[in-house]
UniProtKB/TrEMBL annotation:
<dbReference type="GO" id="GO:0005769">
    <property type="term" value="C:early endosome"/>
</dbReference>
<dbReference type="Pfam" id="PF10205">
    <property type="entry name" value="KLRAQ"/>
</dbReference>
<dbReference type="InterPro" id="IPR049372">
    <property type="entry name" value="PPP1R21_C"/>
</dbReference>
<keyword id="KW-0967">Endosome</keyword>
<dbReference type="InterPro" id="IPR019348">
    <property type="entry name" value="PPP1R21_six_helix"/>
</dbReference>
<protein>
    <recommendedName>
        <fullName>Protein phosphatase 1 regulatory subunit 21</fullName>
    </recommendedName>
</protein>
<dbReference type="InterPro" id="IPR040024">
    <property type="entry name" value="PPP1R21"/>
</dbReference>
<keyword id="KW-0175">Coiled coil</keyword>
<dbReference type="GO" id="GO:0016020">
    <property type="term" value="C:membrane"/>
</dbReference>
<dbReference type="Pfam" id="PF10212">
    <property type="entry name" value="PPP1R21_helical"/>
</dbReference>
<dbReference type="Pfam" id="PF21636">
    <property type="entry name" value="PPP1R21_C"/>
</dbReference>
<dbReference type="GO" id="GO:0003723">
    <property type="term" value="F:RNA binding"/>
</dbReference>
<keyword id="KW-0694">RNA-binding</keyword>
<dbReference type="InterPro" id="IPR019343">
    <property type="entry name" value="PPP1R21_N"/>
</dbReference>
C-alpha cells in the first residue's frame, strides 16, 4: 500500500510537472513564432534597405559619370582659356575692342566654371553623407539581425530541450502506467486469493457453528431433561426482556436535541465566517495578492482554509439526522443513538482539520510579526494569538475524545456503565466552559490587535472591513460557546440520569431496542387490522357472472389495444413515408430550378455567341499576333499557367478553356485529397489521444476499485476472524459452564443415589431386625 501511495504521489507530481512544462512550451512556442515574425519583418526591411542601397549606388554611379563629364568639360574650358589668353597676348597691339570681347567671354567662362565646381562639391558632400548613412543603417541592421538570430537559436535550443524533456516525461508516465497495470493485476490476484480465503474461513466458520450448535443442542437437551430452567441466571436471556418506555423522557430528549441543534448551527455559521474572513485577511495582509504574490505558507494556509465548509457542514447535517432519529415512540439512550457515531466522526474530522491548519496559522502570525511596519505591541499580540489558537485546538481535541467516548455504547452496549458516562458528561461540561473562556480571550486579543493595526500607514479600507467582519464572527463564536456551555451545564442532570430503559438483569442492545419498537408497530398494525369492519361479500353466482363479463371485457380490451398499437405503427410508417416524399419533392424542386437556370444560361450563351463567332471569322488572323506572340504567365494560389495570346479559332479556344478547367480541377482535387488526408490524420490522432486518456482513466478507476475491494476484503477477514474468535470463546465458555454444571449435577445425583442406597440398606436392616424379634 505504501508503494501505491508513493506511485500515486509520483504520478501526480509528474502530471503537475507535465502540465507546467506544457504551459511553458506553449509560451515558448508563441515567443518563437513572434521572433520568427519579427525576423521575417526585419529580413523584409533588410531587403528594402538593400534595394534602396542599390538605388543609391546607381545614383552614385550616375553622379560619378556626371562628375567625370564635368571635369572633362572643365579641362576643355581651361584649354580654351589658355588659348584665348595666348591669343590675347598676341593681339595686344591690335586695339581695345577685341580685348574687351575676350574679357567678357573669359568672365562668362569663369562664372560657368565656378557654378560647376560648386555643384560638384555639393554632389560630393551629398554622396558622402548618403554613403555614411547607408553604412550606419547597414551596421545597425546587421547587429539586430545577429541578435535576433542568436535569440532564435536560444529559443530553438529551449524548445528542443523542452521537447526532449516532454518525451522523457511521457516515457516515464508510460512506464509508471505499465507498472500500475502490473500492480493492478497483482492486486486483482491478491483480491481473488483473499476471496478464496474468506470463503474458506466462512466454510470453517459454518463448520464450527454447526459443531457448536450441535453441542449446544445436546447440552441444552441434557439441561432441560435434568435441570430446572432459571431465567434470571444467564445475562443473554435477561437481555431479551422487554425494556420499559418512558414517554416523558423521550419528549425531554427531543426538546434537548432541538436546542442543541440550534446552538450547533449558530456555532457552525460563526466558524465558517471566521475561517472565510481569515482566508480573506491572508490574501490582504502582510502582502496584497492583487499586487504581488503572497508567501508559500500563506498560499497553503489559504488553500486549507478554503476547505472549511467540507468539515463544518457535516457537523450540522449529522446532528440534524440525530435529531430526526429521536422520535416519541423510540427508546433514546446512549446505546440506541447510532447517529451519534456519525456526528463523532464528523467532529473528529473537524478537530483534525484544526490540527492541520494550526502550524500554518502560527507561521502566518510569525510572518506578520516579521514585517518592517510591525511594532512590538503588535508582535506581542501575535504571540498571544498563537497561544490562544494552540489552546483552542487542544480543547477541540479533548471534546473529540469525549464525543467519541459517548458514541462507543451505540456500537458496544457493554462498553460503558452509567457512572463512567456521568463522569464523561461532567468533564465535557467543564471542557465546554474552557472553550468559552478560550474564545473570549481570542476575541479580546484580536480586537486589541485590530485597534493597533488601524494606526498603520499602509492599512486599506478593505483590510479594515475584513478586520471588522473577523471581530463580528469571533463575537458570534464566543456567544455560541457561552450558550452551549450554559445549556450543557443546565441539562447535565438530565444527561446523567438513568431513564430506566435497561431490561431486568442485563444491558440494552440497539438491535433489541429496534426489535422492541418493530414488535410494537406490528402489534398496533395487527390491532388496527382486527378492528377494521369487513366489507360485505358478493354471492357466488353474481361473482361468476361478473367473472364472465370481466374476461370478455379484458379480451375485448386486449383486442382494442392490439388495434391501437397496429394503427399507431401504421401512422408512424405513413409519417415516415410522408417525410420521405416531402424531401423528394423538395429535391425535385431544387433540380427543376437548376435545370431552368441552366437552360436560361445556355439560351443566353447561344444568343450572345452567334454574332461574335461570325465577326471573328470575318476578321481573320491578326498578322501582328502571328508574327510576334507574347507569353503571359498567370500565377495564383493554385498554381501557375503560361498563356500565349493569339487569335485562334473557336475550337482552339474551347480546347484551351477545357485545358485550363482541367488543370484547375486537377489542382483542386489534389488539394482536397491533401486536406482530407490531413483531416483524417488529425481525427485519427485525436481519437488515439482520447482512447489513451480513457484507458488511463479506466486504469485509475480500476486501480481505485481494486484497492477499495482489497481494503474491504481485509476488513471482512479481520472482522470474520474476530467474530470467529469471539464465538469460539463464548461457546467454549458456555460448554465449560455446562460441563461444570453437569459434573455438579452428576455429583449431586451420585450423592442422592448413595443416600438412597444407604437408606434402603438401613431400612432392610431394620426390617430384618424387626422380623428376628
Amino acid at each position: 500500500m505504501a508503494n501505491l501511495t508513493d506511485l500515486q504521489s509520483k504520478y501526480s507530481k509528474l502530471a503537475q510537472e507535465y502540465s507546467k512544462l506544457r504551459a511553458q512550451n506553449q509560451v515558448l512556442k508563441k515567443a518563437v513564432v513572434d521572433e520568427q515574425t519579427t525576423s521575417n519583418s526585419l529580413k523584409d526591411e533588410l531587403k528594402q534597405k538593400e534595394q534602396s542601397l542599390r538605388k543609391v549606388e546607381q545614383e552614385m554611379d550616375s553622379l560619378s559619370f556626371r562628375n567625370q563629364q564635368l571635369t572633362k568639360r572643365v579641362e576643355l574650358l581651361q584649354e580654351e582659356l589658355l588659348l584665348s589668353e595666348s591669343k590675347n597676348k598676341k593681339s595686344k597691339n591690335k586695339g581695345d575692342s577685341p580685348s574687351q570681347v575676350s574679357l567678357q567671354t573669359q568672365s562668362v567662362f569663369d562664372e560657368d566654371l565656378q557654378k560647376k565646381i560648386q555643384e560638384n562639391e555639393r554632389l560630393h558632400i551629398q554622396f558622402y553623407e548618403a554613403g555614411e548613412q547607408y553604412r550606419r543603417q547597414e551596421a545597425q541592421l546587421r547587429e539586430r539581425l545577429d541578435q535576433l538570430e542568436k535569440e532564435s537559436e536560444q529559443h530553438q535550443a529551449v524548445v528542443d530541450a523542452l521537447n526532449h524533456k516532454y518525451t522523457d516525461a511521457i516515457e516515464k508516465l508510460q512506464n509508471d502506467k505499465a507498472n500500475l497495470e502490473v500492480k493492478a493485476q497483482t492486486l486483482e490476484r491478491e483480491a481473488k486469493d483473499c476471496r478464496i480465503r474468506t470463503e474458506e474461513c466462512q466454510q470453517q466458520l459454518r463448520k464450527y457453528q454447526s459443531e457448536v450448535s450441535s453441542q449446544l443442542k445436546h447440552s441444552s437437551s441434557v439441561i432441560q431433561e435434568k435441570v430446572p430452567f432459571n431465567d434470571t441466571q444467564l445475562s443473554d436471556y435477561n437481555s431479551l426482556n422487554v425494556p420499559l418506555h418512558n414517554r416523558r423522557h423521550q419528549l425531554k430528549a427531543r426538546d434537548v436535541a432541538a436546542q442543541a441543534l440550534g446552538f450547533v448551527q449558530n456555532l457552525v455559521s460563526a466558524l465558517l465566517n471566521f475561517h472565510s474572513y481569515t482566508e480573506q485577511r491572508v490574501h490582504i495582509y502582510p502582502l496584497d495578492s492583487s499586487i504581488e504574490a503572497i508567501s508559500p505558507v500563506n498560499q497553503k494556509f489559504s488553500q486549507y482554509l478554503h476547505e472549511n465548509a467540507s468539515y463544518l457542514r457535516p457537523l450540522e447535517e449529522d446532528l440534524l439526522q440525530l435529531h430526526h432519529s429521536i422520535s416519541e415512540d423510540a427508546i433514546t439512550v446512549l446505546e440506541t443513538l447510532a447517529k451519534l457515531q456519525d456526528f463523532s466522526r464528523s467532529f473528529s474530522a473537524y478537530s483534525s482539520f484544526l490540527q492541520k491548519i494550526l502550524p500554518y496559522q502560527l507561521k502566518s502570525l510569525e510572518e506578520e510579526s516579521e514585517v518592517s511596519l510591525c511594532t512590538s505591541a503588535l508582535a506581542s499580540k501575535n504571540r498571544q494569538l498563537q497561544n490562544d489558537m494552540k489552546k483552542l485546538t487542544s480543547i477541540f481535541q479533548k471534546l473529540k475524545s469525549y464525543v467519541a467516548l459517548l458514541a462507543v455504547p451505540s456500537v458496544r452496549s457493554d462498553a460503558m456503565c452509567q457512572s463512567s458516562a456521568n463522569a464523561v458528561f461532567t468533564q465535557m461540561s467543564a471542557c465546554l466552559h474552557g472553550l468559552h473562556d478560550a474564545a473570549t480571550e481570542l476575541s479580546q486579543h484580536y480586537s486589541q490587535k485590530a485597534s493597533l493595526e488601524q494606526d498603520l500607514p499602509t492599512v486599506t479600507q478593505k483590510f479594515r472591513t475584513t478586520n471588522e467582519c473577523l471581530l463580528s464572527s469571533l463575537a458570534s463564536f464566543t456567544n455560541s460557546c457561552s450558550k452551549i456551555a450554559t445549556f450543557f451545564s443546565n441539562n447535565l442532570d438530565f444527561f446523567a440520569s438513568c431513564p430506566g430503559y435497561s431490561p431486568r438483569g442485563g444491558f440494552l442492545n440497539p438491535l433489541q431496542a429496534d426489535g422492541v419498537m418493530e414488535n410494537k408497530r406490528r402489534a398496533a398494525a395487527y390491532m388496527s387490522t382486527i378492528r377494521k369492519v369487513r366489507s360485505e361479500s358478493v354471492p357466488y353466482r353474481e361473482a361468476l357472472a361478473n367473472r364472465h363479463i370481466l374476461t370478455s371485457s379484458t379480451e375485448s380490451r386486449e383486442g382494442l389495444m392490439q388495434q391501437v398499437v397496429q394503427s399507431q405503427e401504421k401512422i408512424s410508417r405513413l409519417e415516415q413515408e410522408k417525410e420521405h416524399w416531402l424531401l423528394e419533392a423538395q429535391l425535385g424542386q431544387v433540380r427543376l430550378q437548376k435545370e431552368i437556370q441552366r437552360i436560361a444560361q445556355l439560351e443566353a450563351q447561344i444568343t450572345d455567341g452567334g454574332p461574335a463567332e461570325t465577326q471573328s471569322a470575318t476578321d481573320g488572323p491578326d498578322p501582328t499576333c502571328a508574327d510576334a506572340p507574347e507569353t503571359v504567365q498567370d500565377s495564383s494560389v493554385i498554381g501557375m499557367l503560361t498563356i500565349t495570346p493569339c487569335s485562334e479559332s473557336a475550337a482552339d479556344q474551347e480546347s484551351r478553356e477545357h485545358l485550363i478547367k482541367h488543370h484547375y480541377m486537377s489542382r483542386v482535387s489534389e488539394l482536397t485529397t491533401q486536406l482530407q488526408m490531413c483531416d483524417s490524420k488529425a481525427v485519427h490522432f485525436h481519437a488515439e489521444c482520447r482512447a489513451v486518456a480513457k484507458r488511463l482513466a479506466m486504469a485509475e478507476k480500476t486501480r481505485e476499485t481494486l484497492t477499495e475491494e482489497l481494503k474491504l476484503a481485509n476488513q471482512n477477514i479481520t472482522r470474520l476472524q474476530d467474530e470467529l474468535s469471539t464465538t469460539k470463546r463464548s461457546y467454549e465458555d458456555q460448554l465449560s459452564m455446562m460441563s461444570d454444571h453437569l459434573c455438579s449435577m452428576n455429583d449431586t445425583l451420585s450423592k442422592q443415589r448413595d443416600e438412597i442406597d444407604t437408606l434402603k440398606l438401613a431400612s432392610k436392616g431394620n426390617s430384618k431386625k424387626n422380623k428376628s424379634r
